[in-house]
Amino acid sequence: MRAIAHLVGLVVVSILAAGCDLYTWEDPPADCDSGPCCRDGEWLATGQGCLSGTDDLDCTEDVCNDTHACEHPVSQGYCLIGGVCYAHNQDNSEESCKFCDSNVSQTSWQNRLSSTVCDDEDPCTYDDRCTAQGACEGTAISCEDEAGTCGMKRSCDGSDTCVESYPGQETSCDDEEPCTHSDACNGSGICQGISITCTPDSDPCAYQPYCDGSDTCAMGYPGEETNCDDNEACTHTDVCNGSGGCAGTTIQCDDDPGPCGVQRSCDGSDTCAESYPDSETYCDDAEDCTRWDVCDGEGGCAGTVYDCHGHGTCNSDNGFCTCTEAGYTGDYCDECADGYFEYPAESGTCITDPCIPDPCNGHGTCGNATGAAVCTCNDAYIGDYCDEGCSEAAFGTYPDCFIPSRADCATRPCFSVPPTGVSSCYNETSVLNCSDIGGNGPNCGDLSADCTNPDALPDGCFCGQDGQYVDNPRTFTCYDASGTETPCANLTTAQEHETVVDSLTGLVWQRTFFSSFTQTISICASSNDAPGYAGFRDWREPSVHELLSLTEASRHNPVVDVVVFPGGTGSFWSSNTRFDDTSLAWSVHMSYGLVSSGSASTPKDVRCVRGGYPAGEERAGSWLTEHGTPSESTVIDAVSGLEWALTSMSNLTWQASLKYCQDMQYAGYEDWRLPDRHELMSIVDFSTGNPASAISSMVAVGHWSSTSHFSSPANAWYVDFEYGNLLSNAKDQQYYARCVRGFSISSGE
Question: Tens digits of per-residue pLDDT, 636-648?
């Protein structure tokens, strides 16, 4: 048995050594005999790793499939695109907006979200973003070099600006200067070379050194490219001839005939300089009544025309006049002979006495000491003949010019009537529509037929009141503490050195005020201490009329514009004292608009003023002038331009006063009306009393104005002419009525 076993072993060894299948001696298995999925004659199970035929890719799995072939599925979390492995979310190296999304596809690229930052690898774009189609696109920028070798060089770097630099000395250039060499850029955009000096001969055409762009000087004669001067005025375009000489092109310049013809001369150019002889060259214009004939600079000859002024004839022998009319003499018969005088002055008319008739129009004195009429005008008038209007110091209009005395200006207004500001109309108790009673500037006519029953008055019976008439225009202009004009609304609180200018009166007011001072203390003098309030040193206490001019009847509590004059709504002292008792002084109540007198020792507020009329000491004319007949006389106020009736009516209610003036036909006029409160106050004279007015027929009692009380429509304003108080009372009370009308005087200018 051992022998048999040994034999069998030898046979096996022999078979193996010969490479034979151990099982060829019997039937092989039926499964497989070779291949990547065959092991020992048996097929590997599906999903098992292949024994051979792998693809050597890291992103695939080499496994057997159900057909016993080795396949290479892509591993989870990877993509295989174009034979290259990519991890999940890995970008395409050539297209940055495509990436591997193994959850969508393991074999194709996916597009990044639109607007994803990317890089299109183009340096001349910036803010690169992916498109919806998977392309990477940026905003283009153009970076172009400046012209010239040394100009700015620009390049892209992927940002929104260009990288800029200038070429340096390593870059050769040409500075187009023949006297430099080795030209190179300087790094600042300029081409510069090394200078070389080739000092020329003073004669530009001589044999001499010159620059040729190299580092040495060349020598030679300059040619026609070099300008020179051959010192000949009648040649032009002088150039060197290349042999050391200078020559130009000749031009001929000849004068025109005649003393005033064109004169031509050479000036080294290719044209002749031309000019006409002027007044330094004499000629003859062949005219008898001219002399000193000279050229006129335009080719003509003209003399100075002399005129015998119609009093003689031209004498061609000597160029003067032979006077033929009595009273005239002189070379040109333009002077008055002995015993004659010129009148009017500079008129050329000679008379025996220039002051007869009087050329001064009754407003000055005439003198003839100089041989001519010379007018010396009264202070109120201006003009050579005292007929050109009123002087700056005068009031009124020509020919009724006058200068009020200082006392007048201290007690009466030296300016036009200030506005009341009233634009509403009223009946006995309430506000009306002005259009229902005649509108603005009414022409009410005779109202007697409609207004007979005082207990049932229609609205039309209240025609002719304040709100129907237009005020004089007036504006306030504010200035800050530095003197700069500033809207009053911007100066919310009054500060030291702020001022207000009234366009109507010309007065300058302090915006601040002094509180609780007696009238006996001249507190405004403290504003004149150096350097002075707002830089001025002529501040003073205002008069009653000046202080009242700030008030408006269209306001109440206060009656002043608080935007212009902040604060201070109580009583303010004026500079006026009572004419009959200097211990009493006048004040204006800025809350209610009252004008009254009281003890000067009572503390009240004071607002200082400057400017206004610089009153003279003596009267040179009439402030108020009477006109008309003894039975129907009027008084014209040349300051206000108002004409007042000398007659008045007593015991009238407010409405009856309106009607009285509307019905009045007096002194040939029918446009009479009841005055507003400021017009009525304008004829108050605080220097007197009983009555307080210079109007001769004034009665020392209350007189109605046409102005209703703003906050109490059942009341109206009246003036008590005993002393000049401005008060209000119920409209059914009875006072006097004095009518007024507008009056215009010709300026005479």
Answer: 998 888 999 999 9
